[in-house]
Design a protein that fits this description.
Elements (H helix, E strand, L loop, with lengths): L10 H13 L2 H33 L6 H50 L3 H5 L2 H44 L1 H22 L1
Helix pairs in contact: 1-3, 2-3, 2-5, 3-5, 5-6
Length: about 190
């Protein structure tokens, strides 16, 4: 008896299918991406207000000290509130998108399997295929979480911090940018 080998779908085909289904829900995807951008912007701006508060309180007292510190405190609070609202909106949009896309992926995979003959389904192999369809749709959620909740926020935060540092001191910003590129390159090389 010949041994059958598993046919593995190329990653490019899986990525195309995932992207096609993601584009069916452009609004949710765009809303989640915009929320992540807003979150990272607020996360970069908040420490600037905190710095202003500390610098104001550390300086000799003047008649405007309270006013400047209060305005900076309000700005810091609004930035933190914006971060919280952004996370809530991103969670809503991401959850809606993932649930709908995973349902579509499962429906597409199972409808493809249903096009086969009765003899195909009488084989115990078909049960393994239906479990694979479930893993195919579940892996979309893991990929969504990895990209939109880990990689994109980290990249946006690194770019934002580098921009703030470069605005303060070009050499410091350039040094951080070079260090970040070297770190990411080293991680890439070590993972392969």
């Amino acid at each position: 008896m010949q041994r059958e080998f598993k046919k593995i779908a190329p990653a490019r085909d899986v990525a195309r299918a995932y992207w096609r289904h993601t584009m069916y829900y452009k609004w949710h995807f765009t809303a989640a991406l915009a929320s992540i951008g807003f979150i990272q912007l607020a996360s970069v701006i908040a420490p600037l207000f905190l710095r202003q508060i500390i610098n104001t309180l550390a300086a000799p007292a003047t008649p405007q000290t309270f006013h400047i510190a209060a305005v900076a405190l309000i700005g810091f609070s609004l930035a933190q509130l914006g971060t919280w609202i952004g996370w809530r909106f991103e969670m809503w949009a991401g959850t809606q998108a993932c649930a709908k896309i995973m349902a579509d992926l499962t429906k597409e995979g199972l409808s493809y399997l249903l096009g086969h003959s009765y003899q195909f389904f009488s084989n115990s192999f078909s049960g393994a295929l239906t479990r694979r369809v479930g893993r195919y749709s579940d892996s979309y959620n893991k990929l969504w979480d990895s990209i939109l909740e880990a990689i994109v926020p980290a990249l946006l935060y690194a770019v934002g911090i580098t921009a703030v540092l470069a605005y303060q001191n070009i050499w410091l910003g350039l040094g951080i940018a070079v260090a970040a590129v070297l770190f990411i390159s080293l991680q890439w090389v070590m993972s392969h």
